[in-house]
Amino acid sequence: MDLMPTASEEAFRSAARAWLAVNVPDQPRPTEVSAAAAYDVAWQRKLFDHGWAGVSWPKEHGGLGLSLTEQVVWFEESTRARAPQPGANFIGLSHAGPTLIALASEEQKAHHLPRILRADSIWCQGFSEPNAGSDLAGLRTRAVVDGNELVVTGQKVWTSFAVHAQYQELLVRTSSEGDKHRGISWVIGDMRLPGIEIRPIVTMDQMAHFCEVFYNDVRIPIENVVGGLNNGWAVALANLGFERATALTAAQIELAQQVEDLIMLARETTDASGRALIEDDDIRRCLAQCRADVMALRAMTYGIVSRLARVPIPGPEGSMVRLYFTQLVQRVQRLAMDVIADGALDLDFKGTEGRDWVRNFLLSFKDTISGGTKDIQRNIIAGRILGLPRS
Ligand SMILES: Cc1cc2nc3c(=O)[nH]c(=O)nc-3n(C[C@H](O)[C@H](O)[C@H](O)COP(=O)(O)OP(=O)(O)OC[C@H]3O[C@@H](n4cnc5c(N)ncnc54)[C@H](O)[C@@H]3O)c2cc1C
């Protein structure tokens, strides 16, 4: 991959930087879930209305039709300007949308892609079930074909933002014959259909972004199936490929900024003797290691982007970058607790740069679970990339 920017990429960077400099909201994202979702929608709509949404999405569906490199440039400039992250729009923008672009029919794309880009529809993911998380292909939510409809019965769990979502990337079992990976279908599920019951799960921090979703004879038009009936495992793999390989690109770029902020915080924070923490050998060494590691992460990110220019649907290689990234996030957040020391007891502690260090530390525990646990990522790397035997 040639890392030297082209003239048009440089021009795009300058234009993005200039627009972001005057348009990033002054107000931080609220912590309450509904207010946070409204904030995310408002930001995404502003991007759309000003022509910045979907940098690498097709022009005919509301995007800018530019390259993935320009998409990365946009993320870099957004990070630099401390612009909001996609938040509640994450699933639609980062993996439902790319999956539809790759595998949906023209009608499905024309209907859904502009709505995702304009934040007219928030998406959620209905994959995990009480007995099918890591063993996703063991899912039991059933869909029976009845004329032009699928009749869905079952339960999903850990569905992020289900209460705010209009649509869902939904995996259902449409056949029980043969291998469990066959007989799964990937369906566009309308969350407002009769028979859907959403129960928010209130977590320890009193937030309710997780939900249980129950399906009681929910009738979904069969035309909502993407990639063909009983062919949903292939669509799910593409979907998970995007979720693991590219969905976190913005967050990976943002992590480099967090490390720089942490270095600044270590310069500003003093210990009991009045010495700046950056003078502490252990802290300095860990900070230097994190800075080196985010550079390695950047190289992996560019590698993925470069590969996607040739192979449009990511394969198992996304598990390598996801595993490295999620463990690095946890290391950076843990180090932040050492730097802020007593501040770690205050949930609302913010450094001068306004970061929620304590909340981010607590949230980082989820990173090696969501999108497939770190054990599952290791299994994928071992089996599908290294070709190692199963036992
Ligand atoms: C923040 C967050 C957001 C999420 N959002 C969504 C969402 O929007 N939609 C959705 O569908 N799901 C979502 N999930 C669920 C997530 O995908 C599952 O939690 C994850 O796949 C693990 O499944 P599980 O919780 O059932 O754990 P289990 O599969 O029961 O795993 C339990 C433990 O056993 C280990 N384990 C299991 N199988 C193996 C194996 N074969 N080899 C080695 N170790 C193994 C796991 O690594 C884990 O440590 C979210 C999870 C989190 C944390």
Automatic annotation (TrEMBL):
Pfam families in alphabetical order: Acyl-CoA_dh_1, Acyl-CoA_dh_M, Acyl-CoA_dh_N
The keyword Oxidoreductase belongs to this UniProt entry's keyword annotation: yes
Cofactor needs: FAD
Location of the Acyl-CoA dehydrogenase/oxidase C-terminal domain: 230-385
One GO CC term on file: plasma membrane
GO molecular function, a single term: oxidoreductase activity, acting on the CH-CH group of donors
Cited Gene3D superfamilies: Acyl-CoA dehydrogenase/oxidase, N-terminal domain, Butyryl-CoA Dehydrogenase, subunit A, domain 2, Butyryl-CoA Dehydrogenase, subunit A, domain 3
Record keywords, A-Z: FAD, Flavoprotein, Oxidoreductase
Family: Belongs to the acyl-CoA dehydrogenase family.
Protein name: Unannotated protein
Native source species: freshwater metagenome
